[in-house]
Sequence to fold (349 residues):
Amino acid sequence: MQLGTPLSQYLIEEQRLYPEATGSFTLLMNDIALACKTISAAVRKGALVDVLGNAESDNCQGEQQKKLDIIANELFIKNNIWRGHIAAMASEEMEEVYPIPDGQPKGKYLLVFDPLDGSSNIDVDGPIGTIFSIMRSDKENPTEEDFLQEGTKQVCAGYCLYGPATMIVISIGHGTHAFTLDPDIGEFVLTHKDIQIPEDSAEYSINHANRLGWEKPMRQYVEDREAGKNGPKGKRYTMRWVGAMVMDVHRILMRGGMFAYPIDEGIRAKGGRLRLMYEANPISFLVEQAGGIATTGYQRILDLKPSGLHQRVPVIIGSKNEVTDILNFHKSYAEQNSLEFTHKCRLFS
Ligand code: AHM
Ligand code: MG
Fold:
């Protein structure tokens, strides 16, 4: 596949690898791309069209909704509901599964999404994105239980980043590829083929304000990096935190690094900060397909059996050698404190 190939052509060529394919997945992906273009257009106009600011509601997790959270959620539903490729949807902004209404054709896929990730960046004109995950369904009327599949079962994972350029990054299990929206022709074109996250890096991304609540392995990792040339790595590190996971992860896909939203005492009761089904799982799929590692510190994220649509988990992802150091710290800590540690990694020292 050559650089410059349109997303629609890439999808059809992938479809041809499976003679039994009906084309439903290809059409679903085209609908998702259209939804992302529509959200991108609303994001670009910003204050000009009154999409900034708070809505008069909270979401099901008690978080203040922004107007754009609601608009993006509605645009995603609107672009996907009528085509007949989906059995049901679920989103960060809706407490329960959103069924395809009776009378509308239904398909064999489940679509889970975070319509607007990094909501706190909306009003400051910072980068934001949409994250999505597609799984299979064998039911005509799926329930929440049908959505609770391990991340390894995702058919496709992706995000759309609304940055200086709008980019869609996807994996259908054959590597991770990025397509940039060419605004002149209104099409996403392949600009980054088979992304490989560098194994080493001197950059990490973490909300330092939570430091006092972190567990010892994460404190140990950051203290080592802060020591710079005098630390065990013998080099100076840089810290970056955008506050929108799509952007912080995109940087890692482009040039390596480590991103973490680990467990801390302030969020332990909730299980973590980021949501498994529509944040951690799709991002972990993209990162692993690009040669990186994704873990809670103790378990591989993609192996977790979800317990609910809005379950939260600790997330530590990125360059192999950085994340392996963190895993080694967690392994020792788990042994000392009789905690379960199951992440298998060939790089363990
Ligand atoms: P959101 O989906 O409601 O925007 O929340 C998720 C975001 C992530 O994108 C980001 O990494 C994190 O929340 C930022 O958290 P913090 O506010 O602690 O910096
Ligand atoms: Mg989010």
Observations:
- The chain has eight helices and 17 strands.
- The radius of gyration is 20 Å.
- Helices lie at 7-15, 24-45, 67-80, 144-147, 216-226, 245-255, 276-289, 320-336.
